[in-house]
Amino acid sequence: xSSRRRIxxxxxxxxxxxxxxxxxxxxxxxRTDTRRPSAPTGLRATDVTxxxxxxxxxxxxxxxxxxxxxxxxxxxVVGTAH
Length: 82
Known about the structure:
This protein is mostly beta strands. The chain has one domain. The chain is built from no helices and 6 strands.
């Protein structure tokens, strides 16, 4: 399973970072999340144009769950994926 998200971006070589948005506290399972999720892996950019690109990655693993991902380009939030 992988996550996908299309974002807008300017030309150049942007630094793209995907960060997990943790469940925190008690998740939907009622269990308290005490461990950090693993980092997402396999980041791929496809359908790259002058105005955007599609991103895909292998999801993070966590003992309770991952609520979503924050997508950053050069340190600026450009989107989220849930």
